[in-house]
Amino acid sequence: xxxxNLPPLLNHxxxxxxxxxxxxxxxxxSLVRMVTAANSSxxxxxxxxxxxxxxxxxxxxxxxxxSSFAMIGQPQWTxxxxxxxxxxxxxxxxxAMAHAEYGSRFLQALRGPFxxxxxxxxxxxxxxxxxxxxxxxxxxxxIDDGLVFGSSASIVLANTTPTDExxxxxxQAQGLYDYVYFHMVPSPHSIFGGLKKLPAxxxxxxxxxxxxxxxxxxxxxxxxSQDSFTSLGAELKTQLKSAIEPDVTVGAFLSGGLDSSSVxxxxxxxxxxxxxxxxIGFSAKGYDxxxxxxxxxxxxxxxxxxxxxxxxxxxxxxxxxxxSYDEPFGNSxxxxxxxxxxxxxxxxxxCLLAGDGGDxxxxxxxxxxxxxxxxxxxxxxxxxxxTFIEPLINALPNAIPLAGKAKSYLQQANIPLPDRLQxxxxxxxxxxxxxxxxxxxxTVDTQTPLQLLRETYHRATDASTLNKMLYLDxxxxxxxxxxxxxxxMCELAGVDVAYPMLxxxxxxxxxxxxxxxxxxxxxxxxxxxxxxxxxxxDDTINKKKQGFGLPFGVWMETHxxxxxxxxxxxxxxxxxxxxxxTFIDQTIxxxxxxxxxxYGELIWILMVLEMWLVQHQ
Length: 617
What we know:
With 617 residues, this protein is α+β, with helices and mostly antiparallel strands. It contains 27 helices and 19 strands.
């Protein structure tokens, strides 16, 4: 695997290697390769021992016995003596103290965005951990004589050798299948053989004998609030404001939605008359929310900076953006996120505040309401459903009005969660053997994506259906998707990013909000909107949720250079023996003649995959 031909990124990174037995490899030379692969513009600290090496762009501490304690991010210690240690000697020293006192239990005293590595020479163990929302990724590979780890796939693969069979930079068929399913490769898997990602809120403890991954953070959702609706709403506003602590030149993403407007509004209160926000628009009907961004900016007295992304921007920037990711990444809103971050960097902003997380904490996605409609059917006695309702509905002739919809409803209602959430997935609407070549498909477990979703969904025990869906989204919508999108695009543009909506105080507060407060009837985010009513503009609170989508499918209908770029890459993808050529031809036809937006997204993820393969394979 090669790193893309990019300038050094504003990339906070960890890198390291530990041998549990003697090795002919050189830790020092390995570390040099890993740090080079990080492609970071930030200075780094490093330590090298006879059997281990570690480097960090942020914090690194070494004890007298040669143990290393590395950390990146903005950790917050809840124990006073650890917080004092961090202030006096740095977070690496605080990590060493916490590890000595509590072992892995020190994570109960750690908050904020972080990733860490502990190489303990006294016990010959390595410990890796990510924060509760996984804001900093960690990759690792078990090799013959130890463990290699880093905050990117490139870093870890830079330290593999031809004898490290488990960590060869060979593409996994399963990873490619998972990418098409999720439009990214979800944790704990990666697209490379032998390479794994640590999921959000997880801990890895590795010794010579075994490596064990555990989930140290499981939220406790409560359905009975000890606080009144009003007092909890006041606490929400206080927590949100305290989550914004600008210590550099700060600006805010501003799409015009609830979350970005909340974050930008709080920034305006903290920095009156000097708050800057950055917005992206599209000249395409149904996609442009600039009017709402302007409304929020005027409401709070924010200086708004605007940029309209064009089809020409996509043609020019997409190959670079697609190649810059360590793994193929098909979220099309990465491109507008990049142009927004680039606009901020050009205006002297050092850190952007992103609004990601509010929908997943407080119930803001339409699918949550839709699933409740299906779940209500399960409340009928099974005997009544299976012996009376279903035979009656299924016997109706399709010519009868609404018969088709009734049958479709029953079909979906009988699919359990979380599987039902994937009803509109390409790989559920089209048979896998119509999409992939038979030889490729024979090496894939098509049930793996659903198994991942089920395990995560049911991990949230003693939780309502809504809260289980929220927790599922914490992992796959946030940690593995939206945060990877925004963080990497900010790195590429040269600015840092922070996520105030994912402050630990707000996460804890969201778990104390009962489900029927989060969504009341069909009112998404009822509690959140009620708490901020009178502070946010009424039009912002009442606007229909739209999202931050790129109108690629619509643009591609008429923009010839965009068509040519897409068709050229799909033609090359045909030659790679992953997909059946007839499927790619059919996708183009369906985009042209049936649903431009829906099948435009499929064309996008296939095109981005080919762009990524050209650079990395």
